[in-house]
Write a structure and sequence with these properties.
Elements (H helix, E strand, L loop, with lengths): L11 H21 L7 H13 L7 H22 L4 H13 L1 H15 L8 H10 L6 H14 L9 H11 L5 H16 L1 H15 L20 H15 L5 H11 L4 H16 L4 H4 L8
Length: 296
């Protein structure tokens, strides 16, 4: 993948500083208001929409999920800060559900544009894709919602998505052969597709061994809360790819990644183990659609 260029960032140290800053802001935002992750059924819809729009690769589906989670979090946060009643909140959730596909496709559009994809993303093309899913919204609604979602996100989208970040980290620890990069794309895509399950697989370890800058797992309700931050997940994706490919530098890479971030080695190793378990274990019926009520 061709890396985005910025004339003000001259070298890899500048880019690493930028990624660390984004990580710090993510930690602060999570401390203020925890993010509820999209569950497997919603993530499948995101992947289907990306496929229909021809933006299935280059990390766009995972980035779309992340933007949608942030957007919904901001929506709910703003509403609750206005001290509405529970009855009003119940009605508000119904409105959000009715606009879900519009919110989703807006996040896909923004993620695709940020990834510099050349695929046309006109409102008419988006409307055609929605119609294939049995959803009918006018082109005017689609244009308005994309602008509104961008505003809800404070007009801020991460500089790189998960795949681009993982490729940068792989390059930073000296494992950037074409074979490894191709395998890394598969691993990161699968990780994002099953990210909610990955979080559940790490929940117990984090509860007993929580390192610094990692949110404690929530026991409230049955929603899956974000506890692992994106920079750490990307590093785990690199290390997991090297382990799966039996790369001779796989052990040294874990140490190098831990120093680069920085992050605790035990935490990174635990993430690698949970990540490989997540993406190579066949989904049980309960994993893709739990009998318990889960948000989104």
């Amino acid at each position: 993948m061709e890396r985005k260029q910025n004339p003000y960032l001259k070298n890899s140290d500048d880019w690493m500083a930028l990624l660390r800053n984004e990580h710090t802001e993510e930690v602060k935002a999570e401390a203020r208001w925890p993010t509820v992750m999209l569950q497997s059924s919603a993530r499948q819809i995101v992947w289907s929409m990306c496929s229909l729009l021809g933006v299935y690769d280059k990390g766009v589906p995972g980035s779309s999920c992340r933007l949608l989670e942030r957007c919904l979090c901001r929506h709910i946060q703003t509403f609750l800060h206005e001290n509405h009643s529970l009855e009003e909140f119940s009605q508000y959730k119904k409105v959000i559900v009715s606009k879900f596909f519009l919110l989703l496709v807006s996040c896909v559009q923004l993620a695709a544009k940020m990834s510099d994809l050349q695929t046309p993303m006109s409102a008419s093309r988006v409307r055609s894709a929605l119609l294939q899913l049995g959803v009918d919204h006018s082109t005017a609604e689609i244009v308005r919602m994309e602008s509104r979602v961008f505003g809800i996100l404070d007009y801020r989208i991460p500089v790189w998505n998960s795949l681009e970040t993982a490729e940068f980290l792989a390059d930073g620890v000296g494992v950037n052969s074409p074979v490894i990069i191709k395998a890394l794309e598969v691993v990161i895509n699968a990780t994002e597709y099953r990210r909610d399950i990955f979080e559940l697989n790490m929940k117990s370890w984090i509860a007993h061994n929580r390192p610094a800058n990692v949110s404690p797992p929530s026991e409230e309700g049955s929603a899956v809360r974000l506890t692992m931050h994106n920079l750490h997940v990307c590093a785990a994706g690199v290390a997991a790819t090297l382990r799966y490919m039996q790369h001779p530098a796989r052990a040294a890479a874990v140490l190098a990644l831990a120093r680069l971030l920085p992050v605790e080695r035990a935490y990174l190793r635990a993430m690698v183990h949970a990540l490989l378990k997540t993406i190579f274990t066949p989904l049980e019926p309960s994993a893709s659609g739990s009998k318990k009520k889960r948000y989104l």
